[in-house]
Automatic annotation (TrEMBL):
GTP binds at residues 104-111, 186-190, 244-247. It comes from Paenibacillus harenae. Residues 96-297 form the AAA+ ATPase domain. It catalyses: GTP + H2O = GDP + phosphate + H(+). This is Signal recognition particle protein. Composed of three domains: the N-terminal N domain, which is responsible for interactions with the ribosome, the central G domain, which binds GTP, and the C-terminal M domain, which binds the RNA and the signal sequence of the RNC. Residues 1-83 form the Signal recognition particle SRP54 helical bundle domain. Its EC number is 3.6.5.4. Part of the signal recognition particle protein translocation system, which is composed of SRP and FtsY. Involved in targeting and insertion of nascent membrane proteins into the cytoplasmic membrane. Binds to the hydrophobic signal sequence of the ribosome-nascent chain (RNC) as it emerges from the ribosomes. The SRP-RNC complex is then targeted to the cytoplasmic membrane where it interacts with the SRP receptor FtsY.
């Protein structure tokens, strides 16, 4: 998958203490191939690569604590930009009801998405009305009615003998009479874009003057979805796109190209057949998902802002050579705490929450003082060699620091866990091996 391929490229970069122009070119070649293979429009790919290269070369990455990470960060930001940057919200009419017209090819998921959108609006305390304007597909009206019943939303239908334009027109009055603040118009689709379909949609458009024209596209169809979007956009002035079937084995191409090609933002993503599987589309989350990194990226950002590079390298060296002592523990804790609450950081590290013992490793502000007291009550030898701390020494330390033996025991365990965590943390974040450590 695209995720796997990109992760491979980046795992090579990640450990690098220095990223040369050759490294960058090589990585970008692979990113380019991965995107093309994921069915991203080739012009979009070309522009994307050019932008990432320009930004990466413009930054003096060698100065960074983690140059490989800087490149990944740039890629992530550009992917996010490609998909619109920030979340695009649903328009709202000055005077209710807000009219949302759904459009798209047959089978794209218009009817299903209409129901899901109604459900989403209900959660926001709105009163959506569903309107059945697909009078052609057998049982299309019934399908919408079933969805409406399921979520307890009214469905406006006039059978299949009234024209869709007329149904749409009358639905607005119905909404006003019944205090529906949103009207969602489900329309018919065809297997292919054709004149008759477009004419009908344009006519409905003219009558209801929608605040939103959402094109529903099947993400599984890749670049075809983008072509469909472009044709619809030329004729209907879309205001947004809904990507459906993102739960399937999609290659990601549609999500990455549609905004760039049509200029239309993706507003929602559907990932399943269930009624509550529609979400507002977040470009930054999608980018992270594509990069397969979860919240690693926000952690990287924080680390870059908060950790002193030289200190981190020295710490890492100590960790590797097992020189890590209780004094370092205190210092390291201060460094890591700059990143934010420790338990939050732990949640962000992949695999970390699965690690044994980590869950009880909550270090809060108040505890820090006690931890310091405990460490200060150790002798120099004990700080250097924690294994010296047998039961009677632990008792002495507890008494000396005004804490309890339970706390002392817990800290020593935390120290061991911390060592493990920092080992994992530094191998993910920083240069690997003795060679990578040099600038
Ligand atoms: P329409 O012709 O555009 O109205 O499409 P429908 O709403 O009837 O959906 C066509 C098929 O796609 C139905 O079987 C839906 O259950 C399915 N479908 C719609 N959205 C999704 C989705 O996000 N994920 C999956 N897996 N299936 C979907
Ligand atoms: Mg339908």
């Amino acid at each position: 998958s695209l995720s796997n391929r990109l992760q491979n490229v980046f795992s090579k970069l990640r450990g690098k203490g220095k990223v040369t122009e050759d490294d960058l070119n090589e990585a970008m070649r692979e990113v380019r191939l991965a995107l093309l293979e994921a069915d991203v429009n080739f012009k979009v790919v070309k522009d994307f690569i050019a932008k990432v290269k320009e930004k990466a070369l413009g930054l003096d990455v060698s100065k960074s604590f983690t140059p490989g990470m800087v490149v990944i960060d740039i890629v992530n930001k550009e992917l996010t930009e490609l998909m619109g940057g920030t979340q695009s919200k649903l328009a709202k009419a000055n005077k209710p009801p807000t009219v949302i017209m759904m459009a798209g090819l047959q089978g794209a998921g218009k009817t299903t998405t209409s129901g899901k959108l109604a459900k989403l609006l209900q959660k926001g305390n709105h009163k959506p009305l569903l309107v059945a304007c697909d009078i052609y597909r057998p049982a299309a009206i019934k399908q919408l009615q079933v969805l409406g019943e399921q979520i307890n939303a009214p469905v406006f239908a006039l059978g299949d003998q009234t024209s869709p334009v007329e149904i749409a027109r009358q639905s607005l009055q119905f909404a006003k009479d019944n205090n529906n603040d949103y009207v969602i118009i489900d329309t018919a689709g065809r297997l292919h874009i054709d004149e008759a379909l477009m004419e009908e949609l344009k006519n409905i458009h003219q009558i209801v003057k929608p605040d939103e024209v959402l094109l529903v596209v099947d993400a599984m169809t890749g670049q075809d979805a983008v072509n469909v979007a472009q044709s619809f956009h030329e004729q209907l002035e879309l205001t947004g796109v809904v990507l459906t079937k993102l739960d399937g084995d999609t290659r990601g191409g549609a999500a990455l190209s549609v905004k760039a090609v049509t200029g239309c933002p993706i507003k929602f993503a559907a990932m399943g057949e269930k009624i509550d599987s529609l979400e507002p589309f977040h470009p930054e989350r999608m980018a992270s998902r594509i990069l397969g990194m979860g919240d690693m990226l926000s952690l990287i950002e924080k680390a870059q802002a908060g950790i002193d590079a030289d200190q981190a390298k020295e710490m890492e060296r100590k960790m590797r050579t097992a020189e890590f002592t209780f004094d370092d523990f205190l210092e390291q804790m201060a460094q890591v705490r700059k990143l934010g609450p420790l338990d939050q950081i732990m949640d962000m590290l992949p695999g970390m929450n699965k690690m044994k013992g980590v869950k009880d490793m909550k270090i809060d502000e108040k505890q820090i003082g006690r931890v310091e007291a405990i460490v200060r009550s150790m002798t120099k030898d004990e700080k250097q060699k924690p294994e010296l701390l047998n039961h009677s020494r632990r008792k002495r330390v507890a008494a000396g620091s005004g804490t309890t033996i339970v706390e002392v025991n817990r800290l020593i365990k935390q120290f061991d866990d911390m060592k493990k965590m920092m080992k994992q943390f530094s191998s993910m974040m920083g240069p690997k091996g003795p060679k990578g450590g040099k600038k």
